[in-house]
């Protein structure tokens, strides 16, 4: 049993992980939230604590006795990563052993190609900050949990999740349509279910070895060709495949009405269209550069764990809810 602090504990993935940790009945959990703790349900072993992350001394006090910190702060909403860096500094001062920065997406190639997903720049900056802290002497163990893309997005809008808010993918199994950039049909992308991510994190908390700095989690990996093959099998007819020119995408020109609609709660309604078109191009480019195919570090540490596979997931989604 260890004491775990979870920052931004109201986030979608964090709530799933909290539930999985609670199921083990092994750990004491301190869940940091910005809202009143009264707005969150009572859970065995969980204490909801309100904080703004702006007072380092307060954070040091809250982190007393904590062994592991799991951070889910949205990097694009944390200017200069000030809150996450303050949380890291407070963790070091409080004697925290392990820290998981707010990654939970893409893979290790993000570092070399951040221009393709600029809203994730904070992830790389925080990683560099942690590496610099440990440059002369290791003061805190950390792992960047990197699962590629959420598998559940392939099932939008049929996925019924307790916490996850899904968005449609570039390969839309509901509409039987795919949007792709020319020359990318053989580019691999990793898809990992939220439940699998949570289960791996629960195992990682108990893991007695040293956490890998790059903590790739590969649920299943597929190219566009393979997704279309699976899609045609599951949906029973060929997909409409729409191609965009790479030169247009690189220039920010998205010549389609079938762009990726990113209507997440964190994006103002009047900015959804502009952001969505920009994001469509960036995701297409980042997939081509391999940013969504992480390593398999946690797969190798837990070789017995069986991940949900794409075809099994889609068969269940479209047969159960047809």
TrEMBL record:
Top-level division of the source organism's lineage? Eukaryota
> SUPFAM superfamilies from the entry?
NAD(P)-binding Rossmann-fold domains (SSF51735)
**Domain NmrA-like residue range list:** 3-253
Q: Which UniProt keywords apply?
A: NADP, Oxidoreductase
User: MF terms per GO, please?
Assistant: oxidoreductase activity
Record-linked InterPro entries: NAD(P)-bd_dom_sf, NmrA-like, NmrA/Isoflavone_reductase-like
Recorded hits in PANTHER family, A to Z, give: NMRA-LIKE DOMAIN-CONTAINING PROTEIN, NMRA-LIKE FAMILY PROTEIN
So what family is this one in? Belongs to the NmrA-type oxidoreductase family. Isoflavone reductase subfamily.
Please identify the protein, giving its name as recorded: NmrA-like domain-containing protein
The organism of origin for this protein: Stachybotrys elegans
The organism's lineage is: Eukaryota, Fungi, Dikarya, Ascomycota, Pezizomycotina
């Amino acid at each position: 049993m260890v004491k775990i602090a979870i920052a931004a504990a109201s986030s979608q993935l964090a709530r799933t992980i909290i539930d999985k940790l609670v199921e083990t009945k092994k750990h004491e959990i301190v869940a940091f939230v910005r809202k009143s703790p009264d707005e969150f349900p009572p859970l065995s072993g969980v204490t909801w604590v309100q904080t703004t992350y702006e007072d380092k001394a307060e954070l040091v006090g809250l982190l007393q006795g904590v062994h592991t910190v799991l951070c889910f702060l949205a990097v694009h909403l944390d200017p200069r990563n000030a809150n996450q860096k303050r949380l890291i500094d407070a963790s070091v001062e409080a004697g925290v052993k392990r820290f998981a920065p707010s990654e939970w997406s893409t893979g290790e190639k993000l570092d070399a190609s951040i221009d393709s997903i600029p809203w994730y720049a904070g992830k790389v900056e925080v990683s560099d900050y942690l590496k610099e802290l440990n440059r002369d002497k290791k003061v805190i163990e950390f792992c960047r949990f990197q699962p590629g893309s959420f598998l559940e997005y392939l099932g939008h809008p049929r996925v019924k999740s307790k916490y996850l808010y899904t968005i449609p993918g570039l390969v839309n199994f509901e509409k039987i349509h795919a949007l792709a950039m020319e020359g990318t049909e053989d580019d691999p992308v990793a898809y990992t279910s939220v439940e699998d991510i949570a289960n791996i994190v629960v195992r990682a908390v108990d893991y007695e070895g040293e956490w890998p700095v790059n903590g790739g989690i590969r649920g299943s990996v597929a190219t566009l060709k393979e997704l279309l093959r699976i899609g045609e099998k599951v949906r029973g007819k060929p997909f409409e495949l729409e191609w965009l020119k790479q030169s247009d995408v690189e220039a920010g020109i998205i010549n389609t009405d079938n762009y990726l609609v990113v209507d997440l709660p964190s994006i103002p309604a009047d900015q959804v269209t502009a952001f969505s078109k920009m994001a469509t191009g960036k995701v297409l480019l980042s997939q081509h550069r391999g940013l969504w195919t992480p390593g398999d570090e946690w797969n190798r540490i837990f070789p017995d764990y069986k991940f949900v596979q794409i075809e099994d997931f889609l068969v269940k989604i479209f047969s159960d809810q047809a």
